Amino acid sequence: MIPDPILIVVAGLFGLLLGSFLNVCIVRLPRNESVVHPRSRCPRCGRGIAWYDNIPVVSWLLLRGQCRGCGLAISPMYPIVELANGVIWAFMAWYAGFSLEMLRGAVFGTLLLGIAFTDARDYIIPDEFSLGGLVLGLGFAVAGGWPDLRTALIGAAVGFGLLWLFGEVGTRLGKRMGMLGGEGQPDEAMGGGDVKMMAMVGAFLGWQGVFLTVFLGAAAGSLIFVPLNLSGRKLLVPFGIFLALGGAITYLFGEPVMGAYFRFIGAE
Hints:
Elements: H1 4-28, H2 58-62, H3 77-96, H4 100-122, H5 127-143, H6 146-176, H7 192-230, H8 239-267
Helix pairs in contact: 1-3, 1-4, 3-4, 4-5, 4-8, 5-6, 5-7, 6-7, 7-8
């Protein structure tokens, strides 16, 4: 067995490195660009990023958030994503130890992190995260045997179907109320990326996790965007951010929350 402190450190370092690649995915996937070629370079001066300037978090701090060649500011998103992903992997090593569940939870967290930042930047959830994550979720379920795979398949179907239904109903109501389909307005209440994302979430969390994720995501989104819209600031809602938050909370606390809810219902 690997000692826990060493496992946590190694997992955290791997998460930092993976976070660096995740940044590339976040920036390039919405543009349908390769995440492998060309090498990362400064968009102003074209200087290639040397290995010593590409050390997660550390290089950004040493460079003071600027390109070594021309001084162009480097977005703080890069070290934030790297650090967050490192924390996710280190936490899962502490939480689940050296196990398949450690890997499953860490991969799920990385997918949610990538979805949240991509949707925040470009209002899009790439299929590489949603459908690719769906395949990974089902793959982890296969390792657990037929009961786990059945749960994942049902969860994926419920996640896809529930968000699709919400989208259809919301779109029809929104168009009737003049909130959708007009000039300067979105055409749909729910993007296809959100629908496919929830299929992925269902594969990892099961059908009960889907409902809790959607509830938490809708609650968080409403708390932030409803007051802004009521104030007259009409903003497009990157719902993937809040679904990602809901999915993370559900993964960590879903069982006790749902258990308490069912006990409450039974007490009634």
